[in-house]
Amino acid sequence: MEDNVKKLAPAIEDIFEIYKKYTVGVDILESRRLREIVDYRVFFVKLCVDYTSATYSQIARFIKKDHSTIHHYLKNYDAFVLNNRRAYEVYLRVEDEIIHLYPSAIFVGSNEKKKEARNIEMVGTEMHQSYARRFHAQRVKINFYKELCKKQKLMIKHLTSNEV
Predict the structure, then answer these.
(1) What is the distance of C-alpha 36 from the center of its chain?
(2) Which of 23, 77, 111, 158 is the most exposed place for a label (fewest CB within 10 A)?
(3) CATH class of 1-116
(4) Rounded to whole angstroms, how far apart are CA atoms 43 and 48?
(5) Which residues contact 23 (CB under 8 A, 6 or more apart)?
(6) What is the CA angle 64-68-70, rounded to 5?
């Protein structure tokens, strides 16, 4: 009788079982840091945060990582979307299946409305603008330090030439 009743919200293990069907050949629980494994792990974490009421520590224990790693994954989620489109497409398929299996679990972990764009191209253009600003700021800092180094080298050269 319990099989006929749909659960209100999935557990981390439920999401993992669904995710495992779509990521054949990639074990997100292994401790290796291959780019592909990390990308799939990030999307798994995002699903767990959005569709379960699990804390960062509980998710971290499940994937055998530290809770700060979970925070890092979520903070840099946009970059992971840009870098691995195949993993993002798997994420979208798994998300659709979770919504189908657990219709009342729409954003259990998040209180605010879902802001994520499902169109990969749109996500790319929006993120490009924010990353361009950040990289420009970094480039300005690098140029400043390059100029500072040049000035210091000239000062050293000038001082050594005066001493001789």
Answers:
(1) 13
(2) 111
(3) mainly alpha
(4) 9
(5) 40, 90
(6) 65
